[in-house]
Write a structure and sequence with these properties.
The chain starts with a helix and ends with a strand. The radius of gyration is 20 Å and the shape is globular. The longest helix is centred in the first third of the chain and has 24 residues. The strands form two sheets. It has a six-stranded mixed sheet with strand order 3-2-7-6-5-4. Strands 1-8 form a two-stranded parallel sheet. By secondary structure, it is α/β, with parallel strands linked by helices.
Length: about 300
């Protein structure tokens, strides 16, 4: 493992996995890319002749960098304006074929993972998503295997209690998303009331940079009124009739992407219940968080 060419080849072989771990840890493509780049710098300068398991070594580096980054990010998020939502990314069709993998990277699940401690999140992701054994995880985060098992148990219990209540199949989610898209873009209040569950909640992330609700809005009437109202005047300088919107795959699930002036304006995901009514809506409009979508990169996760 001495040559630079070989080192590069090994790193590139695992790059997708490393980004996948980092993104699930951080909920930010930009931060995940930074972590992967830092991991490359450490890998390229390491004494690789003494590394017998490159994959485990690289995952360990990325996990610890992500833990440190997440701790720092959470301090910054304490002053974030309005609800904080993860940074959405375009995903390819392959992830939708694996329901568990798609759920693990959905915006709803990333929000749940935000409520874990940094180490709980690391253990949950490495064990439940990627199937690493507890022994390897213990080495990765420098904790005893018994401690890692406790962290894993706490994380699983926490996620089970808070994960999305319903898991509609892919086709049902697309149908609900398209129905919501048509009703909201058409300003059809009656149709919106039909598709929204009575206890629906909407979270809007503008980061203080664009117009957004500063708190979650609860209840079908209030949510519908907000959605209708937002379309009555130009948003980010773009009139509703000048926007182009489409249903695309974001974080392994169908989502509405609205574009105007040649750039993304918002990404909207919906969470349906067992009857196909929407119980959760997440709107990401902070321009900084839409940079990966604007770039058109489809990530393999």
């Amino acid at each position: 493992m001495g040559s630079h060419v070989e080192a590069t080849s090994i790193f590139e072989e695992h790059r997708s996995l490393l980004f996948s771990v980092a993104y699930r840890m951080l909920g930010s493509a930009a931060d995940a890319e930074d972590v992967v780049q830092d991991a490359w710098l450490r890998w390229s300068s390491a004494d690789r002749a003494r590394i017998t398991q490159p994959k485990a070594y690289l995952v360990r580096i990325v996990t610890n960098l992500a833990v440190d980054t997440l701790r720092s990010a959470r301090v910054q998020r304490e002053s974030y304006v309005g609800p904080w939502l993860p940074e959405p990314i375009l995903t390819g069709p392959d992830i939708a074929e694996d329901a568990a993998r798609a759920e693990s990277v959905s915006l709803a699940m990333l929000v749940v993972l935000e409520s874990l401690t940094e180490l709980e999140r690391a253990v949950f992701i490495l064990k439940e998503v990627f199937g690493f054994p507890y022994g390897e995880i213990a080495e990765a985060i420098d904790r005893s295997e018994a401690t890692v098992r406790q962290l894993g148990h706490r994380a699983r219990s926490h996620v089970q209690a808070r994960r999305p209540r319903f898991s509609a199949d892919r086709e049902s989610r697309r149908v609900v998303t398209e129905r919501f898209f048509a009703a909201s873009m058409g300003g059809d209040l009656n149709e919106l009331m039909q598709v929204l569950a009575p206890d629906v909640t909407i979270w809007t992330d503008g980061g203080g940079k664009v117009r957004a609700a500063l708190r979650p809005i609860h209840g079908a009437e209030k949510v519908a009124a907000w959605l209708i109202g937002i379309g009555k005047r130009p948003y980010q300088g773009v009139a509703l009739e000048d926007m182009r919107a489409e249903v695309v795959q974001i974080n392994g699930e169908p989502a509405v992407l609205a574009l105007g002036n040649g750039r993304p304006i918002t990404v909207v995901t919906v969470e349906p219940d067992a009857e196909g009514r929407i119980v959760g809506i997440r709107v990401i409009a902070n321009p900084d968080k839409l940079v990966p979508v604007a770039g058109g990169i489809r990530y393999t996760l």
